Structure formats: structure tokens, C-alpha cells
Amino acid sequence: MPSIHCLGTGLVGSFVAKRLAINGHLVYAHDIAPNSQLIGHKNITIVEGDALEKIVDINKMPKFDLIVNMLPGDIGHEAMKILCSQNVKVVDLSFSEITPDNLIKDNKNKNSTVLWDVGIAPGLSNMLISIAHRRLGKLKLGEIRVGGNPIDKIGGWNYMAPFSPKDVIAEYTRPARVVRDSNITVLKPLSERHDIQVSEKGQMEAFLTDGLRSILTSIPATELSEFTVRWPGHIQKYIDEFNDGTLDYNQLLKDWKYDKNVKEFTWMEIIAINHDGEMMKWTISDEGANDGHSMARCTGLVTVFCIEEWLNNPDMLTKGIHAPEELDDETIERIINNIKSEDIVIEFECNF
User: Fold this and answer.
1) What are the residues whose beta carbons fall under 8 Å from the beta carbon of 296, sequence distance 6 or more?
2) Count of other CB atoms within 10 angstroms of residue 352
3) Domain membership flag for residue 240
4) I need a labelling partner for 297 at 20 to 30 A (CA). Which of 260, 261, 290, 330 fits?
5) pTM of the shown model
6) What is the mean pLDDT of each run of 10 residues along the chain (352 residues)?
């Protein structure tokens, strides 16, 4: 039975740990305050305490095949600094601002094998863009629009954070790196706002965020962008409060706190067009199911299926730091088919 250490048991982390256990893997779930839903599962051992302290000396940890880093933001980055200096296999879902590929600049951090950013976006979005690039060649245009939102407007911000609210705030404040005229360009976050039509939901709004990450350099393109999707009025409320000095980040953490009783949906659209006008487009949508709310499912299932691909093929990756677009087409297709089998809708269209 494969043994996996899961660092962090938040909304996504607990989903991943539980699903891995259900699938027959032995899971060690690390957290200062472990998710109560994991307690009592026959394949899950709860490890309560500071995960960073536990991984300093991995030889003292129970034997394992793989470590999954699901600690948020800066804490997740600190975990990666520790793990990358050791001879381990790591799946990284921390989405920290400082990405793991920066760690290989230090020679001592070349012992581990890391697959990073394996969520829905970044993650599945990278895989689909890479399929488009392999089929279409250099892209004239690549666009990712993605968001997790309440199914119905709930008043106020019309939003709740499906993962760490601090990481959401970071998305709104971090300059957006995009590709324009084949060069990496830095634009103001929240810019290039535009209305979009989301099937069965109606009009929503999209704005630039810094979510392209590894594909900024791995996918040849004339223009690449990632947009976050929210209900109309949400981002204007944020901008207005920021500009007039009334934005209270501590209050935001309270206002955006996740409420499991509020139904939410995840929606993503990926469009890729080459210089001959050939187009590939994917639309992904989910409204949750009995196993979890939609963002936990859409993010966590990508993670789980990447983990299982690696367990099934231990030589899938060479030593070093790997982004999801590096996976081969056959592996990506299996991951997509597994996601579809979980009743997450993935629609594809092309014009050739």
C-alpha cells in the first residue's frame, strides 16, 4: 500500500487526504489543527503539530512514497525549501508567490523531484494549454478565465474564499505577469476588466491576475493572459474601498470566510488560437457533489490523479522541478478522463 504524507488539511488538503485514503493509500495528515473530517478514517493517521518541524528530518518520519505540500502561501514555500534539499518526491499545491523552480538555483536543492502547481488553475489549465501548443504550434493567443464563486449572489462581496483568504488577497495585489508581443510584460492587477457570459449563470466579470506562472516561459505565444472571474460588482467594491482607504484586510478575512452551507461553482474557460486561425477551446464546470464542494473537488481531484499517475509510474519524472505542462499527452488524457468520470464537465471544441 503506497504511503503518502499530506502537509496541510484545509479545504483542499483534507479533500485530497481523504480521497487518497478512500483510494487505498496510507495517508499521514499533518496539521496544527487537523480537519475533524479526517479523524477515524482507517487509512489516515493524524499527525498534529507544526508540519515544518516534522519535515526537517524526514528520516524520523514513517516510511513514505511521496509528500504532498498543501500548506498555504509563504508557509508552503518554507516547506518547499526544506523538502527540496532532501532526496524526496514532492507534489506541491501551495501556490506560493515564490515558485519552486526558483529553488533549483541553489545547488543543494537539486536532490528532490517536484511536480508543482497541480490544481485546476494553475494545473489543469497548464496541461490543456500544453496540448494546444503541441497541436497548434506557437500560439497567437492563449487565454485562461477561471473562478470559484457562490452559485447565487449572496450580497456584500458576493464571494467567499474556497482556500486561504490571504492568498486570494495576494492575487488581487500582485502585479499580473502576462505575455504581450511575445515578451513577458507586467501589468496592473485587476486591469483589462471585461464582461463575459457564463453558461447557466449569465453575466460575470473577468480581470487580470498573476496566474500564468510556469507557462509564461514554457509555452511559446504572442499573447498569454489569465483572468479571474467574479460576479459583477465584486472587484469594483474592492477597488473603491482600496482607493478611498477604507479597505480593511482583517475584515476581508472575516467577510470572505468559507461557508460550507453556501453552494458554489467552479468555472474555467481556456482558448488557444494559432497564427493560422486554428482554435481549441475547453470549458470546465462543476457545482460540487457529495464528496465535496466544487473548488475542493476541481483542485483536489487534479492533485489526486497526478499523484496516482506518479505512483503507477515511479519514473514518470526525472530529478528536478517539473511544471504540469511537462506531462506527456497520454498522461494528461488519462487525468482528463478521470476528472470527467467524477462528473466534472469538460467540454471541448475546435474549428479544424
Assistant:
1) 11, 12, 14, 15, 162
2) 10
3) yes
4) 330
5) 0.95
6) 95 96 97 92 95 92 95 92 92 91 66 94 98 98 97 93 81 94 96 95 96 97 98 96 92 90 96 98 96 93 98 95 97 98 97 96
What is the full DSSP assignment across 92-158? E----SS-GGGGGGSGGG-SSEEEE--BBTTBHHHHHHHHHHHHH-SEEEEEEEEEEEESS--STTS
Which residues have CB under 8 Å from 102's CB, separation 6+?
A: none
Residue 292, H or E segment: none
Whether 235 is covered by a domain: the verdict is yes
In-domain check, residue 157: yes
Let me know whether 222 and 343 are in one domain: yes
The CA distances from residue 76 to 36, 51, 99, 115, 220, in Å, are: 21, 10, 10, 14, 29
Separation between Cα atoms, residue 146 and residue 55, nearest integer Å: 33
Write the CATH number for 336: 3.30.360.10
| Rounded-to-integer distance, Cα 52 and Cα 77, Å | 10
Q: Are 8 and 96 in contact (CB under 8 A)?
A: no
Q: Are 34 and 57 in contact (CB under 8 A)?
A: no
Asked if the structure places residue 300 within a domain, the reply is no
Domain containing residue 94: CATH number: 3.40.50.720
* H helical segments located in the chain: 11-22, 51-54, 73-83, 124-136, 165-173, 215-218, 234-243, 249-255, 294-312, 329-340
At a CB cut-off of 8 Å and minimum separation 6, what does 246 contact? none
The CA-based diameter of the chain, rounded to the nearest angstrom, is 57
Residue carrying C-alpha cell 497564427:
275
Burial 4-36 (b: 16+ CB within 10 A, else e): bbbbbbbbbbbbbbbbbbeeebbbbbbbeebbe
End-of-domain residue from the set 93, 116, 139: 116
Q: Are residues 284 and 256 in the same domain?
A: yes
- In this structure, the answer to whether residues 131 and 76 fall within a common structural domain is no
Q: How is residue 264 written as a grid cell?
A: 458554489
* Pair 111, 128 in one domain: no
Name the DSSP class of 66. E
**Structural domain of 205:** 124-292+331-350
Write down the pLDDT at residue 341.
97
